[in-house]
Amino acid sequence: MGEYLPLFIDFSGKKVVIFGGGAVGERKARYFAGAEVTVVSREFTQCLEELGRDGVVRLDCRSVGSDDVASLIEGAFLVVAATGDKALNDEITRIAVERGILANNATGDSPAIVPSLVKKGDIMVAISTGGRSPAMAKYLRKRLELALGDDIGHMLSLQEAARDALKSIEKDQKRREQILWEILEDAEVWEALQESDEKAMETARRHFRPDR
Ligand SMILES: C[C@@]1(CC(=O)O)c2cc3[nH]c(cc4nc(cc5[nH]c(cc(n2)[C@H]1CCC(=O)O)[C@@](C)(CC(=O)O)[C@@H]5CCC(=O)O)C(CC(=O)O)=C4CCC(=O)O)c(CCC(=O)O)c3CC(=O)O
Ligand SMILES: NC(=O)C1=CN([C@@H]2O[C@H](COP(=O)(O)OP(=O)(O)OC[C@H]3O[C@@H](n4cnc5c(N)ncnc54)[C@H](O)[C@@H]3O)[C@@H](O)[C@H]2O)C=CC1
């Protein structure tokens, strides 16, 4: 097993080439939908056809042999091998790696892993089992989705606002850090968040006191 580490990458404008237009190719295409996604496949799921029609992804309908791969992945930032043909997926992955392109292999050893993703507004939690049990990654995602309530999205907005306000009030960085923590750990602030963002900010402000 490799030394996998998560990293949040800005995919806007990046070229992603996905091979295979089945259920797995579709899931990966939706995951990377913010990028410039092309799906290359003999056939496409109905959902991919719709995404193609709406201009969310580009569809390239063709049968792929290993000789075609190099030209199809030119300029790509990431290649996803998700056809139903394991040998072809391994070959696609090998060719991408050879060219220094990131690759995700849906049926074998994979240089890059697509995680399970919990999203609450701008907060993201990525889950991987290092490839050992994708089913368990999915299971943990479902549990975390339930455990992390919607109020964390509101706390994010509050922290952002408090952080901005503190920059002009409190010159000492360590002190700003401490105040932001106090707000995070204040049960009454979390309670006030249920009522309104304004009420929560009001409650949070008591931590703004100058301490000297
Ligand atoms: C290594 C990895 C490479 C990669 O694809 O990136 C990989 C590989 C393989 N998956 C397989 C099977 C399944 N994968 C899922 C689901 C997901 N698989 C995802 C990621 C990953 N899958 C990467 C590791 C992630 C990690 O580190 O944990 C998720 C998280 C992300 C996504 O794909 O979007 C997404 C859940 C999203 C969500 O809902 O949260 C399910 C369940 C389901 O579909 O309901 C099953 C059936 C049950 C089972 O087998 O566990 C097989 C065997 C194929 C076969 O038997 O033929 C292989 C190949 C192999 O093992 O060699
Ligand atoms: N990594 C993951 O998350 C998971 C991986 N898998 C594995 O991923 C693979 C794909 O799964 P599905 O999408 O469900 O299969 P699928 O059979 O529905 O889709 C495969 C697609 O690849 C296309 N394809 C196959 N060979 C091609 C070629 N030479 N040229 C062009 N297109 C070609 C087919 O037309 C089809 O559209 C399977 O081997 C499956 O076992 C399955 C579940 C999860």
Describe, in plain words, how this protein is organized in 3D.
- By secondary structure, this protein is of the alpha/beta class.
- It has two domains: 15-114, NAD(P)-binding Rossmann-like Domain (Rossmann fold, 3-Layer(aba) Sandwich), CATH 3.40.50; 151-208.
- It is 47% helix and 16% strand.
- It is built from nine helices and seven strands; from the N terminus they run E-H-E-H-E-H-E-H-E-E-E-H-H-H-H-H.
- Strands 3-2-1-4-5 form a five-stranded parallel β-sheet, with helices on both faces.
- Strand 6 and strand 7 (123-127) form a beta hairpin.
- It is elongated.
- The termini are far apart.
- The mean pLDDT is 95.
- The structure holds ligand SHN and 1,4-dihydronicotinamide adenine dinucleotide (NAI).
- 1,4-dihydronicotinamide adenine dinucleotide (NAI) is lined by residues 20-25, 41-43, 63-64, 82-85, 88, 106-107, 134.
- It is an enzyme of class 1 (oxidoreductase).
- It comes from Methanocella conradii (strain DSM 24694 / JCM 17849 / CGMCC 1.5162 / HZ254).
- InterPro entries: Met8-like, NAD(P)-bd_dom_sf, Sirohaem_synthase_central, Sirohaem_synthase_N.
